[in-house]
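User: Here's a chain of 266 residues. Predict its fold as tokens.
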Amino acid sequence: MLFDSHTHLESRRFDGDREAVIARAQDAGVTRMVTCGSDLASSRACVALARAHAGIHAAVGIHPHEARTAVTGDLATDPVALAEAAIKELMSLAADPCVVALGEMGLDYHYDLSPRPAQQAVLARQLELAAALDLPVILHNRESDADFRRVIDEGPDRLRGVMHCFLADGAMADWALGRGLYLGIAGPITFRNVTHLDEIVQQMPRERLLIETDCPYLAPQPRRGRRNEPAYVRYVAEHIAHLWGTTPDDVAQQTTANASRLFGLG
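Assistant: Prediction complete.
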């Protein structure tokens, strides 16, 4: 039993064969998946998918790339003027029983597709909403470590969540684990040019690790360069099993229990 803790099954890249992708995942032993919204439209699509498929759960949120869509006014003078209508819709979507988390949310300074003040404001507001709703968060961080830590540390004290597709260094891992966060490990751990994650995964508490695909992105090494899909999460489990000196089944059992605990699935 595998749990893919981060997918984007609502992506247009699955429009031609989405049901077949889901069937292949189930055939590969992926019994649970979380499909994550990036804006209001994709969040609605995630909820619809989760309603239609047993074993698929939804997360709703506003990705840092889309933060500009959730602010109003002149960003140059008023970067924190949030569109409360967007927050209210997230709150409404989160009331659905199939929603297990808020996200994907965070900061991304690699592409800077939204102004950084807007990214920070939208992240902070979603953290407040998650605390109010008592939901875990799915966090995105790319080349924004200092501001990311600051916004999180200035946010609600009792934060539950996962740093998805974790690629940062050991110091960032120590900070995240110290905050009580989980680390989500995806396909890049199998890449030949990504070696620092091996040591982090070997040393971190096993009960705080999740596995994911982030599909359709970041296919693991045997499928690198192709469209990713949930069935391929097994390659991540196999790599971690090698690092832990155990079996893929043991990794599947541990990470499924971890994800079920975080997302309140029993």
